[in-house]
Write a structure and sequence with these properties.
The chain folds into two domains: 66 residues, Winged helix-like DNA-binding domain superfamily/Winged helix DNA-binding domain (Arc Repressor Mutant, subunit A, Orthogonal Bundle); 172 residues, Four Helix Bundle (Hemerythrin (Met), subunit A) (Up-down Bundle). Helices cover 77% and strands 3% of the residues. It is built from eleven helices and two strands. It has a two-stranded antiparallel ribbon with strand order 1-2. A hairpin with a 3-residue loop joins strand 1 and strand 2. The radius of gyration is 20 Å and the shape is globular. 31% of the residues are buried. Keywords: DNA-binding, Transcription, Transcription regulation. One of its GO terms (molecular function) is DNA binding. It comes from Acinetobacter calcoaceticus. This is GntR family L-lactate dehydrogenase operon transcriptional regulator.
Length: 247
Amino acid sequence: MKVSDQVVQSLRLLIEKQQMQIGDRLPAERKLSEQLGVSRSSLREALQQLISLGMLVSKVGAGTYLQQLPTNWSELQIVQPLSELIDEDPTYRFDVQEARMILEGGTAWYAAQRSNEADRIKIRQCYEKIAHFQALGDADQASLADAHFHLAIAEASHNLVLIQVMRGLFDLLQYNVVLGRRKVYSETHRFDQLHDQHFQVMDAIERQDPEAARRAVCGHIEFVIQQVRSIDEEEARCQRARRLNRT
């Protein structure tokens, strides 16, 4: 288990022991790290994980607050095992992509119907950040912006269950995006295609066209699946050729 995961479990026990309620403010970072007996860097990583999952909320200048009780932190039990499965079996990422098509097809559909101006601004900002960090060559931040783009669409659906599922799977979504980027985003023409696909999703939502939004996001994910499979096959052929040349 990663250190940050251990810190999450310690934090969960502390919250339960102190009988904190939704809306309560967590102790300051320095005090909290002392209470848990962990480094501040490990604590920050754990807090960010919980914030990404929607369990905690950080308010600038005001601190970090409990948004969900630890009894509802079941999402944490989803992300780690699935990530381990991807590590053990790289082809498992295709199952993740197929699940994304089902889930995100729905979130895009409802986002086109229900999104407000603030939602659409947030989606566009995420879209622009992807290109910005890609141009800087910052793959980590580009991947994070990519995952946030898809999460922003889910939030724009205004369906609390869909939002919670997407937040709960955020770390897995980002992990899946990173794996895809290592393959597909390595060539400029492929990035241009993916960037245009993101635009098509965003444009359909802005035009309030649910069917176009659903087709665009499903087409985008299907494109990634096919491209990664094609790249994997080419790499496998090259490996076989190298083995043949050594014999």
